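Q: How would the structure tokens look for this protein?
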Amino acid sequence: MKKDRMRLDEIRNRFGNQDSFTAQQLYSFYSEQEADLNVGTFRWRVHHLKELGIIRNLKRGIYVFESNKNFEPIVSRTLTKLYNLIRRQYPYTDISIWDTVWLHNFMIHQPAYSLIVVEVEKEAINAVFEMLREKMRNVYIYSKKNNDIDYMISSNSIIIKPYLKESPVSKNKKIVVPKIEKILVDLYFEESLFITYHGQEIYNIFENIFSKYTINITTLYRYARYRTIKENLRWFLLNQVQIDKKYL
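A: Here is the predicted structure in token form.
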């Protein structure tokens, strides 16, 4: 698509001083010079603006100019090997994996240990646990009723949890990892597991991530609603952390 048809400079001039703008406003902008602009062409144009990194969704039907970058953590060799080990044994099981070390750069006090969090379908949890326990140390199945939580978070451990179908995930070098929105929701919700990252540090983590990376609020709230904590999380964001409230 030709850039003059996209009218990139004009878009910035028209909406650059606004905190956000709606799909209807953007459609009206293009329709000023293209009275016959159809909805399909407009949707493709919006898609192309996103691909170019010009705009992004703030909420459904609301856009902002892209300024921050996407959260793309480094997937370590250890994570890659562990993911591939599980994938080979259980090729048809949904799996995601991440390491709490990804959060350490956003904290003031650095934890002595980190947790590798492996999520697999509920039906496969016990089998994956037994397989990993034969090959590795400090492997645990997480549940809120587990009496070993204090022990499992006091060392470098592998934590196995149920994979939730509504989890927002993406691929990083062929490894399925949670999106930052999921990490933030789980971090807030599962305090007993992530107690090391609570206290003052949870404020540091949220504030630093919101200031440096693109957060899709629709994705964040949709997953929080699935975990039944949307209103609690929204109150936390509005009242407890220092972030730009236009995102909320």
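Residues 39-51 form the longest helix (13 residues).

Residues 46 and 115 are 39 Å apart (CA to CA).

Upvote if useful.
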